[in-house]
Amino acid sequence: MFLGIDIGTSSVKAVLTDADGGVAAVASHPCAVSRPHPLWSEQEPEDWVAAAVAAVDELAARLPDAVAAVTGIGFSGQMHGAVLLGGDGRVLRPAILWNDGRSHRQCATLEAALPALRAISGNIAMPGFTAPKLLWVAEEEPEIFAALAKVLLPKAYVRWRLTGVMVEEMSDASGTLWLNVARRDWSDDLLAATRLTRDHMPDLAEGSAPVARLSADFARRWGMRTAPVVAGGAGDCAASAVGLGAIAPGDAFLSLGTSGVVWTTTDRFLPNPAMAVHAFCHALPGVWHQMGVMLSAAASLAWAATALGAGGTGAGAGAGEVELLAPLGDAVDGPSPVAFLPYLSGERTPHNDATVRGLFAGLAANTGRDALVQAVLEGVAFAARDNLAALGQRPESIDLAGGGSRSRLWARICADALGLTVHRIEDGEVGAALGAAHLGRMAATGEDPAAVCRKPRRLESFTPDPARAEAYSQAWLRWRRLYPLAKEFAS
After folding, report:
1. Could you say which of 206, 234, 279, 463 has the lowest number of CB atoms within 10 Å?
2. Which is nearest to 161 in space by CA: 69, 223, 92, 85?
3. So which residues are the catalytic ones?
4. Cβ 208 vs Cβ 283: under 8 Å
5. Minimal CA–CA distance to 172: which of 156, 159, 187, 188?
6. In what order do the strands lie in the sheet with 397-401?
7. 8 Å CB contact between 216 and 170
8. Comparing C-alpha atoms, which of 280, 276, 243 is closest to residue 265?
9. Residue 488 three-state SS
10. Alpha-carbon distance 305 to 139, whole Å?
11. Residue 37: is it exposed, middle or buried by C-beta count within 10 angstroms (0-12/13-18/19+)?
């Protein structure tokens, strides 16, 4: 048996897989996000540890024999977050998250100070990345920066707490803006630009490599026969790719999680920073990927549920979204008369704009809730089309992952809006944790990735309807013209 633990933004998820690679059990525990100031987004690292332990506790209570047989563990997690540790290992401040926009001024400083930044990192400096966050800390919280000994990403912090080993792997390290992505090594020049050195960084490893063993205390707590091998793991997107079998050049998927991702696997480093495309290492040796990122995908629907009063007091997680979608059924005739820009927390690809905000356009006296909800789904689909255009690659079809993949309506809208066949897949909601489990398996067994990272079963495929696809193409062109208005309004 193998265990994958995903350190997400809204929750920590643990997935138990069997010898066939199938999901045997899933447990999840929520995490809270703090937004103490405009543009800020923070979490307490200890909350991740507590949630991870609670999730595995639950699995061990439900399936003690299966958990006892675990031999490999992999971690995945939200990327870019900055966990700052002092020399005694103490957390110096709350972690600054991937969707935190406070360091946009420091991005400009980095670009000006190091003209080679984009060539080395393959990426444009964005507030979401880790390096600008540290420059912000150096400038705004100098006493904390002076006490800094190590910077860890979220999953690396949790792994350290559970194993005693500080290590990072290539996919997550790519999102720090400190990695020479082509060489798969820390860059001294990039580190120096943020007043850091290699001493502040953990060691590097490939995602499928064994890097540690679970501590004896946790192995005993969960009744494991031996302390499992722990893999290098992956950032959440790369882990999802492993779980989806997207490990060969040309493989593609669209993830509708809290954030949204359009992913293509590549056999070499293919940077395109001018379009705010992320060019990162994959979690497997000798493989890279391109990625377009939307900061608010399923988060847009969750926002709409709150704003429109769906779900009711005391309703379970996701109840509001279910209530919003139910009246729309599984299909719509064409684009909503209302347009929605999903830039609730700014946007990455293709705008690299932390300050832009979302908007509704086309409201009328008779506009109802259903039209607004449909517009939210379409706005995210149009943002995905923007991402696909920025990547400059057009796959034949695309798998749909993340919590949004539950919706047949959203899948159909994506197919028409992208002009691509979209596949709903088995276990599409647990992709990152599943991928982490696969990496734990490879670390424990040494199996070839192709034997472990098999593509999931496709549950349903949606082919674009020609008439609707043409209507959506025209609606997308109109939708794109709203960005300058949103930018002006946000300023």
Report:
1. 463
2. 85
3. 236
4. yes
5. 156
6. 278-281, 288-294, 260-266, 252-256, 397-401, 421-425, 458-462
7. no
8. 280
9. helix
10. 38
11. exposed
CB 168 within 8 A of CB 201: yes
| Secondary structure E strands in 66-217 | 72-77, 83-85, 95-96, 150-152, 167-169, 179-180, 185-186, 203-205, 210-213
- Condensed to tens digits (0 to 9), the pLDDT of residues 261-276 reads 999 999 999 999 989 9
Give the HSE-up count for residue 297: Cα atoms under 13 Å, Cβ half-sphere.
Answer: 28
d(CA 167, CA 484): 42
Provide the sign of the torsion angle of the four alpha carbons 454, 207, 395, 397, taken in this order.
positive
Separation between Cα atoms, residue 404 and residue 54, nearest integer Å: 25
Residue with tokens 């309703």: 315
DSSP 375-434: HHHHHHHHHHHHHHHHHT---SEEEEESGGGG-HHHHHHHHHHHTSEEEEETTGGGHHHH
Query: What is the pLDDT of the chain when averaged over all its residues?
Result: 94
- How far apart, in whole angstroms, are the C-alpha atoms of residue 11 and residue 428? 16
Going through 158-257 in order, the beta strands assigned E by DSSP cover: 167-169, 179-180, 185-186, 203-205, 210-213, 229-231, 234-235, 252-256
Which tokens belong to 467? 């008439």
Task: Give dist(CA 388, CA 275) in Å, integer.
Answer: 11
The pLDDT tens digits of the residues spanning 51-101 come to 999 999 999 999 999 999 999 999 999 999 999 999 999 999 999 999 898
- Within 13 Å of residue 347, how many CA atoms lie on the same side as its CB? 25
Say which range, 205-219, 245-259, 406-420, has the weakest mean pLDDT. 245-259
| Distance in angstroms (rounded) separating the CA atoms of residues 82 and 196 | 14
Sequence-ordered list of residues with C-beta below 8 angstroms from that of 352, at least 6 positions apart, any chain: 124, 126, 276
List, in sequence order, every residue forming a beta bridge with 95; answer none if it has no partner. Answer: 43
Structure tokens at 206: 């490939």
Helix ranges (H only) for 262-407 are 298-307, 319-325, 369-391
Collapsed DSSP state (helix, strand, coil) of residue 453: coil
Residue 156 has a CB neighbour count (10 Å cut-off) of 27
pTM of the model: 0.86
Helix axes 130-140, 104-113, angle to 10 degrees: 100
Asked whether 52 and 214 are in contact (CB, 8 A), the reply is: no
> In this structure, how many other beta carbons lie within 10 angstroms of the beta carbon of residue 353?
21
Q: Considering the chain, what percentage of its residues have pLDDT values greater than 90?
A: 85
CB count within 10 Å of CB 144 equals 14
Look at residue 147 in the predicted model and tell me its pLDDT.
Answer: 98
CB 371 within 8 A of CB 401: no
- Let me know how long the chain is: 491
Cβ atoms of residues 431 and 244 within 8 Å:
yes
